[in-house]
Specification:
138 residues; globular; 22% helix; 30% strand; 6-stranded mixed sheet; alpha+beta; 3 helices
């Protein structure tokens, strides 16, 4: 699906993040002809993972439709493989169960990230969760 449409959907339905500024590809899931979920896949945010072989699911948002999230995650995994990516990763907050990720064939890959991006020489306004996340690999 077009990035603009996916970003607009994520702006309305994502629980805690604004849409990203770019992507490699975006996918949508429809039910009865209505868009019920969107996923945005891009290059990994973490420098050490940005090796040209890894893609990152940067946003997944659904309107609550049953199984839409796991359908999107599985579709992202398949599309990344079709595009010759060897790995696809994404992150969850500690408060999120990961049940949709498990259903889509992802496995936990350890703790990652966390902390603020604010520095004395580069002030940033943290509008995102700053706790450690759990990385998932598919």
């Amino acid at each position: 699906m077009p990035f603009g449409q996916a970003a607009a959907f994520c702006a309305v339905y994502h629980r805690h993040l604004n849409p990203p500024v770019g992507h490699l590809f975006s996918l949508g899931v429809f039910w009865a002809g209505r868009l019920v979920g969107a996923a945005i896949v891009g290059r990994p945010v973490a420098r050490m993972l940005d090796d040209g072989k890894t893609a990152e699911i940067t946003r997944v948002a659904v309107d609550g439709t049953r199984n839409a999230c796991s359908a999107l995650l599985a579709a992202c995994r398949r599309e990344a493989r079709k595009r010759s990516y060897e790995r696809i990763v994404t992150y969850t907050l500690p408060s999120e169960s990961g049940v949709s990720l498990r259903a889509a064939g992802f496995r936990p890959d350890g703790e990652a990230g966390g902390g603020t991006w604010n520095r004395s020489k580069r002030a940033r306004d943290d509008r995102h969760p700053t706790m450690k996340k759990l990385r998932w690999r598919g």
